Amino acid sequence: MFAPDQIVALLRRLGITHVVTVPDSTLGPWAETIVSTPGVRLIRVCREGEAWAVAAGLHLGGATPLVIIQCTGLFESGDALRNVLHDWKLPIPAVIGYRSYLNQETLPGDTCLVFTEPILDAWGFHALLITDPDQYDAAVEHLYDCRAAGTPGVALIAEGKA
Amino acid sequence: MSRSRIPLPEALAAFRSVRSDRDVVVTTMGPARDWMAGGPLHPLDFVLVPSSMGQATSLGLGLAMARPDRRVVVFNGDGSMLMNLGSLVTITAEAPANLVIVVCDNGAYEVTGAQPTPGSAAGRAGGDPIDYSALASAAGFRSVHRFSRLADWEEHLTTVLSGPGPIFVALETVPVPGGKGPRSPGPAPDRARRFMAALAAPLVALALVAGGLVAQPAERVATPVRVVGSVFVDRNGNGSRDPGEPGVAGVAVSDQISLARTDGDGRFAIDAAGYGVVYVSQPDGYQVRGPFWRTAAGGGADFPLTPTTLARAFTFVHASDTHVSEATVDRLRRLRALVDSLKPAFVLISGDLVRDALRVPEAEARGYYQLFERELALFPVPVHLVPGNHEIFGIERHKSLVSERHPGYGKRLYRSFFGPNYYSFTVGGVHFVGLDTVDYFDLAYFGHVDAAQLDWLGRDLAALDGDTPVVTFNHIPLVSGVPAIDGIDEESVAPSLIRLGGRTQLRHVVQGNDSVLAVLAPRLEIALGGHFHRREFLRYETAAGTRRFAQTAAVVGPVRGEGPLGIRSGLTLYRVADRRVDDGTFIPLDR
Predict the structure, then answer these.
(1) All domains of chain B, ordered by start, with CATH?
(2) Does residue A120 lie within any of the structural domains?
(3) Exposed site from B12, B109, B383, B563, fewest CB < 10 Å?
């Protein structure tokens, strides 16, 4: 979706110090760029729920984390993000891959298309759907504005073949 | 026969008695309840109530990574641990040296009525309880401990906590019948803000002194090694102390942390807790025969000396940035030829000795080091080195593909070749201090003198006679005007700015240099640096007298004048008379 230099620019714009992630086939290749970005550390966690708590610890410690996971991991994350975002009110930003969104004709059976957006709403995320690389600036500014407002922002990246 | 177990309140009380004011303590579930009951909360207590059960270990990992200068201790329950076993693997993948995980294993979901966990004997068909310490070992923890008796926990607690991290401790604790769930000690968002403020406040101070964010403590040895030996006059030149060869009293021997003095017979003993080497600070009137350092592997370490007849007037050469590779080795040979003709008492080379070790695989880095070592042996006079940024091995991991666990990672490769990365020696009444002014954090290096080195510097200088002048030499300059002249570079592989601890800093001069200068003053005769590949001379007239800072040019180039100023390669020759060092004379390497 985004070029490596755009990913670096996104991290820089948001002042990200740590990226906490479980990869998928679209977001996973970002890891190489993230690892090679000075001042940004990539933390690979074992499951997505863990990512929110690691990010919470980083945030409490004064760092600026970003969670990058797929929507299936969002489903897995429920109780952890409830605690981090709503009990402790820590506005952790995230980039979430929206599995199969661009394959709606060929993969009508993927229930990610049914649950992703309602669940984001239910958990109180402010999500912006990104379906085209041209929306890069909008994605960055959305995350930036959400953080400035102290709310959890999500750039929801449409995945699959267009 | 029933197994002994530890009452949880007593286990926590034992830790509270040794807990440092700088420790961050995370508690959850039963441990949170009993921690709150055991005494007033500390500003750095993070009571994870309300919680997402199982996430305390992950939250602790994040805290430990954000604040590597703090020990983070997490008291977790066994039920919670079972909910997030993967976090043990994540923790060892990141390997924060400052994280301690304590699992209080009572075998039950206590706060819901003490139902057995599937890890407990009562919860398993076979009655075989899960060994959490074995799980931690299998997950990659190297410091793993298990206690089932309070007396053992109390006895070993301090030792356990001082071991290399991350540390895992399994405490077999007594279930509390009817134990209630912990109650939140106040609105969570407010507590989060107060905790962040308490944790952040010292960060500001840390950023202002030289002891802020550092990576080098990760290179410290896990366990001190006792090194004994002697410093002696090697009359027959065989390198061994033979009967009748006198010891030299009062000589400093150091592990780069502490400093021991030889006794009247030249003997010393030091518990080497530094970075795996010990060195002798060459005393005035002597030359160390052979290497001035030894690997701190235990046992003996004798340092043979040869008396010198050096006059109070002498010269020395300051060179820098040799960047040796097969393609550039002729430049180092040209330097050697100049040294041959100038006949100084010794040579200082202030870093960037090799082409690069930051971003290359081990074989390539080691090849450069070996080439430099071979060429160094050919110099006609002693050569004193300090590392530069290009000696740091592998930290640009995305390019070097070197693991942080590589035995040569960071400064370790340099030490394995050339010994201590900071040290001192005295010649002609002048005390020379080689400083390591290049620190690193994650993938990036930056100008900095870490707290351990600063403490060592204070100890080193404290032993000098009252008016002994000090010359420092190091790679990244303590003071330089070059960043102002060249401007801010945001594009190159080594941009001018770096963000650390929430602050944007200049990267190519020493941050926190005021702390270094405060230790050096008023002895500082002149401070020498390299890094910028140009001769630079700064003179400040201060209330304490003249302060001089001089960088020397690079040996590697440029051969012809470069840039609008026509910068060129060369060395600086200094003359010393009656302990005063002159301003130096630039000598181009190419005529």
Answers:
(1) 8-208 (3.40.50.970), 217-309 (2.60.40.10), 310-588 (3.60.21.10)
(2) no
(3) B563
Mean pLDDT by 10 residues, chain B (591 residues): 80 94 94 94 95 97 91 96 98 95 95 91 94 97 95 95 93 88 92 86 32 53 88 94 96 96 96 93 95 86 91 93 98 98 97 96 94 96 98 85 80 96 97 96 87 92 91 98 87 78 82 91 94 97 91 95 90 97 97 82
- Tell me the ipTM for this assembly: 0.97
Q: Are B428 and B345 in contact (CB under 8 A)?
A: yes
A33 vs B230, which has greater pLDDT? B230
Question: Best mutation site among A8, A44, A67, A88 for testing chain B: the one with the most B CBs within 10 Å?
Answer: A88
Chain A nearest-CA residue for B26: A57
Domain interval for residue A24: 1-104
Q: In this structure, what CATH number is given to the domain that contains residue A27?
A: 3.40.50.970
Instruction: Yes or no: say if B141 and B92 are a contact pair by the CB < 8 Å rule.
Output: yes
In B, which residues are within 8 Å of A86 by CB distance?
Answer: none
SS3 category, B3: coil
Mark yes or no for CB contact B62/A58 under 8 Å. yes
| Interface residue of B28, B49, B52, B83 to substitute, partner A, most A CBs within 10 Å | B52
Residue A68 within a domain: yes
**C-alpha dihedral (B194, B197, B199, B200), degrees to nearest 10:** 170
**Residue A77 forms part of a structural domain:** yes
* A39/B87 touch (CB, cutoff 8 Å), yes or no: no
A32 in any annotated domain? yes
Contact at CB, B86 and A89, closer than 8 angstroms: no
Count CA atoms within 13 Å of residue B220 on its CB side: 24
Q: Would you call A83 and B50 a contact, using CB atoms and an 8 Å cutoff? A: yes
Facing residue for B59 by CB, picked from A36, A56, A89: A56
**How many separate domains does chain A show?**
1
